């Protein structure tokens, strides 16, 4: 089994947010410092590997595990039955366990934990592991493995899950003995929750779980090559500050790393200090308040015209925790052609990967922003403060002329954008919203107003259909004080809605808005625009045949089912859903099938070719800047 070298680990370093805003400690380091000798227990005990696994969970603060038992992992479930500190939530599919762990981690900032047996149980975790890897979410996946002597023999339910997940984990382990299990688990939690966050897999053979060995706590971590850079280089900060104060058209290009670093408060201070416009990527919605006058919105394929325009016309991009994703840049060679780039990221592998950085800065986003504030303040005190009046006059004109909006369907059907807009308005910005992938995801990003970080959870990098329901479940478990809405499509919903049975039985009262247009909406939109309206295999039958009937399905899964088909009933239906607090709720919003997401930059084209509506491009004066 090939294992990454310490050098590779250092290069791939994927850090997470600290457990407390004022601390840089990870769950593993906190455990090492605070629980060297658990009260009432000896420092050493003779335990099975399974007991060591559960005891380590307790020491590391893993209070929730999402999983399904099976043969190879079954020994772990016996001591788990007796644990008062660790709650196990029995999901209906391992994919649900993985996405629930991700939703839990995104909503709380803690490490999410999922568990599965060997073979198909483990391979069912591959999609959520890849999803967490793409979006830099700290989860630990525990998988059972066939007994050590059977590894490599094609034994029943054997799969080389460590090999399978090597490209999509921050690191993974095949445990050889019970003695090393505490160290490996502490390292796994530390790796998942430090530097750039990411998934870590721990594969444990059945005999290791069954055999007794000595349990010692705390263990000593052995990660000699893993040293994430948290604090940026002072020279790079000063150079970035110089560029910021000399720029005439700066833009703060904010990515999900700002939320991971819990840097929203200092981001606002930097924005107000510099006066620069702010754009927040799909993964960064909520990092900067939508209500703030400097917020230009979301950039990219379905971003606001103002945000896309600001990036294209900028003379300086200050990229903070963003990775120049293709959905933001469009055709890379034409992206922000006249801009210098300050690129700050905790992962050095991201800097220069897609766009050359004039000032590369490696460091945690919160520390970078704090030091930029000090350096820019020093520039201002020295009399170097730019005037951005003309830049803002242009941007204000653009966003007034091209606001986000939509047209009511000509056939009188219910507008999906209106439904989502009303959910956001009635439920409010303090709730947590999750989304699947497709049109409803983009509308949720556009028409719900986000004021706080960690209130918008979605699958941005991998684009995983079926993410919304289990992620909402995980988020609600982690933040039971929050109202949690999953905004899902009728296609996405049918991939993982079985987890509503989990929610009903476990007392997890999430709310699901199914935006039911009877089709795979985003694929249909592309067929409309690029395939001469040849709708090959995109009609789902949820309109024509009402298969399934989502209200009946909700009832069968132990939920309250509601349906809304008319604009005049939307508010009352949402309010009825909000009044149910002791059961999951599913609302079938039957909407028109022809609505499209606008604006749009077609895949592979330049952001300069953004379409405001079908066949309508914004008109810009080439001399307006």
From TrEMBL:
EC numbers, comma separated: 2.2.1.6
Domain Thiamine pyrophosphate enzyme TPP-binding, chain residue ranges per copy: 436-589
Pfam families in the record: TPP_enzyme_C, TPP_enzyme_M, TPP_enzyme_N
Pathways involved: Amino-acid biosynthesis; L-isoleucine biosynthesis; L-isoleucine from 2-oxobutanoate: step 1/4; Amino-acid biosynthesis; L-valine biosynthesis; L-valine from pyruvate: step 1/4
Thiamine pyrophosphate enzyme N-terminal TPP-binding domain residues: 48-162
Stated family: Belongs to the TPP enzyme family.
Entry protein name: Acetolactate synthase
Species in which this protein is naturally found: Dactylosporangium roseum
Organismal lineage: Bacteria, Bacillati, Actinomycetota, Actinomycetes, Micromonosporales
């Amino acid at each position: 089994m090939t294992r990454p070298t310490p050098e590779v680990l250092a290069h791939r370093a994927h850090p997470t947010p600290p457990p407390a805003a004022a601390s840089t400690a990870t769950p593993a380091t906190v455990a090492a410092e605070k629980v060297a000798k658990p009260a009432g227990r000896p420092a050493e005990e003779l335990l099975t590997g399974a007991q060591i696994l559960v005891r380590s969970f307790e020491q590391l603060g893993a209070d929730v595990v999402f999983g399904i038992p099976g043969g190879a992992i079954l020994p772990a479930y016996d001591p788990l039955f007796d644990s008062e500190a660790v709650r196990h939530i029995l999901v209906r599919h391992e994919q649900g366990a993985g996405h629930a762990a991700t939703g839990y981690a995104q909503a709380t900032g803690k490490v999410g934990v999922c568990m599965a047996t060997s073979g198909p149980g483990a391979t069912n975790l591959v999609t959520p592991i890849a999803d967490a890897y793409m979006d830099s979410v700290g989860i630990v996946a525990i998988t059972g493995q066939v007994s050590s002597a059977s590894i490599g023999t094609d034994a029943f339910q054997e799969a080389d899950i460590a090999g399978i997940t090597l490209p999509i984990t921050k690191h993974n382990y095949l445990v050889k003995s019970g003695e090393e299990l505490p160290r490996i688990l502490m390292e796994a939690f530390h790796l998942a929750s430090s530097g750039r966050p990411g998934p870590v897999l721990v594969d444990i053979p059945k005999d290791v779980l069954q055999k007794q060995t000595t349990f010692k706590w705390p263990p000593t971590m052995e990660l000699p090559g893993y040293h994430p850079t948290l604090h940026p280089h002072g020279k790079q900060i000063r150079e970035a500050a110089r560029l910021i104060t000399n720029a005439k058209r700066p833009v703060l290009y904010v990515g999900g790393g700002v939320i991971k670093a819990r840097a929203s408060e200092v981001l606002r201070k930097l924005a107000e200090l510099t006066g620069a416009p702010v754009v927040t990527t799909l993964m960064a919605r909520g990092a900067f308040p939508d209500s703030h006058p400097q917020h230009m919105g979301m950039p990219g394929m379905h971003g606001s015209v103002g945000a896309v325009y600001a990036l294209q016309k900028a003379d300086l991009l200050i990229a903070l925790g963003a990775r120049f994703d293709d959905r933001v840049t469009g055709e890379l060679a034409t992206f922000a052609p006249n801009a210098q780039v300050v690129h700050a990221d905790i992962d050095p592998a991201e800097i220069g990967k897609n766009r050359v950085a004039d000032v590369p800065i490696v460091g945690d986003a919160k520390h970078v922003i704090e030091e930029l504030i000090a350096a820019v303040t020093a520039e201002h005190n020295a009399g170097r403060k730019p005037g951005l009046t003309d830049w803002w006059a242009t941007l204000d004109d653009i966003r007034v002329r091209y606001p986000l909006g939509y047209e009511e369907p000509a056939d009188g059907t219910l507008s999906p954008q209106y439904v989502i807009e009303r959910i956001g308005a009635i439920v409010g910005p303090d709730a947590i919203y999750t989304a699947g992938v497709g049109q409803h995801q983009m509308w949720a990003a556009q028409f719900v107003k986000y004021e706080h970080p960690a209130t918008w959870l979605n699958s941005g990098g991998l684009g995983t259909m079926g993410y919304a329901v289990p992620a909402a479940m995980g988020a609600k478990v982690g933040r039971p004080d929050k109202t949690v809405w999953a905004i899902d499509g009728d296609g996405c919903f049918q991939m993982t809605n079985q987890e509503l049975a989990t929610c009903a039985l476990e007392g997890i009262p999430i709310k699901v808005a199914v935006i039911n247009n009877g089709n795979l909406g985003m694929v249909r939109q592309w067929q409309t625009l690029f395939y001469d309206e040849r709708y090959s295999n995109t009609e789902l039958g949820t309109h024509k045949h009402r298969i399934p009937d989502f209200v009946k399905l909700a009832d069968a899964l132990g939920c309250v089912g509601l349906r809304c088909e008319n604009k005049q009933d939307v508010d009352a239906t949402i309010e009825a859903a909000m009044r149910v607090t002791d059961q999951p709720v599913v609302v079938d919003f039957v909407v028109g099938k022809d609505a499209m997401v606008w604006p749009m930059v077609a895949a592979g084209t330049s952001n300069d070719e953004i379409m405001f509506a079908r066949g309508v491009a914004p008109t810009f004066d080439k001399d307006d800047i």
